Amino acid sequence: MNGVLNVYKEQGFTSHDVVAKLRGILKTKKIGHTGTLDPDAVGVLPVCIGKATKLCDLITDWGKTYEAVMLLGTTTDTLDTSGKIVAQSEVNVSEVDVLKACNEFIGEYEQIPPMYSALKHNGQKLYELARKGIEIERKPRTVERKARPVKIFDIQIEKMELPEVTMTVSCSKGTYIRSLCDDIGKKLGCGACMMKLTRTRVGRFMLDDTLTLNQISALVLKGEIEDRVVAIDKIFSDYPEITFAEEYSRYLHNGNKLSREQIPADVEITDERYRVYDSGKCFIGVYEFRDEVLYPVKIFYEDNK
Questions:
Q1: Closest CA to 187 of 78, 66, 103
Q2: Per-residue pLDDT tens digits for 7-40
Q3: Cis geometry, peptide bond prior to residue 163 (ω within 30 degrees of 0)
Q4: First and final CA of the chain: distance in angstroms?
């Protein structure tokens, strides 16, 4: 089995827990997830299987969409309601104030990740240090804990019943919604933390198409699970396709680059990246055309002999 399974991560599971359970359900060890979700968060978690594990770093880079519930007036050590309350304030802000504050974060901004996160300091995860009561400085000048540039593409307020605010956030990789809520709270002067988080999209993978672990188990028993696995080449369906003649199979299978003269004459080179297949329609990988040469970017072909 090679491809991507769109898994619904349930509350209480870590992303690692999901992978561990899938290894047992699918009877395969070669599985990787595409971006950590907090244990209390739920939603889209694309999981790569077999040769598709080479996709993990690419999918991690994709944009994401979340639905979050922010609680104004409360600040915690974890930046969400699962943590210890460190400050509480009266919420003397209007809905207009909240809208204005949220809009100020649309675009690029420097975000300091929360202390309770899977990022590492000297090889140890920050949430492990935090649970031991060890606080790591989180200022832009520090190397391990420096603020990182993230991009908020859009914030849509879905509902406001102050002090609770439900919003949909589309953002770049590396964005912590907990930190965003905390930053909005600071902007408003009353503090804030995150109450609830659902990831509704990772790139092309949507919440409506997810499968729970129980549903996956049932499909495995029926022998129907492969129907729900997205093939590797389908991930790159936006890229034009190039199929090479038999004489170039050896070049492709060895991961070699190809010159413009070797590309089929009927292929119009107008894009930078392409899906490349051999003469038997076996997907080789993603190639990039530059300086009149087609270079391999990511090869998925494996010789099974």
A1: 103
A2: 999 999 988 999 999 999 999 999 998 878 888 8
A3: yes
A4: 17
Q: Which residues of 123-140 are buried (b: 16+ CB within 10 A; e: fewer)?
A: eeebbebbeeeeeeebee
Model-level pTM? 0.85
* Angle (nearest 5°) at CA 37 between 86 and 232: 165
Any idea which residue has 């790159």 for tokens?
236
Could you please report the per-residue DSSP string of 108-172?
Answer: EEEEPPPSSSS-EETTEEHHHHHHTTPPPP--TTSSTT--EEEEEEEEEEEEEETTEEEEEEEE-
Task: In whole angstroms, give the CA distance from residue 62 to residue 46.
Answer: 11
89-96, long-range: CB < 8 A, 24+ apart:
89/189, 89/190, 89/191, 90/190, 91/162, 91/163, 91/190, 92/190, 93/162, 93/188, 93/189, 93/190, 95/160, 95/162
What residues act catalytically? 38
Pairing verdict, β 107-111 and 148-161: antiparallel
Q: What mean pLDDT, rounded, does the chain reach?
A: 88
Angle at 139 between CA 133 and CA 142, to 5 degrees: 90
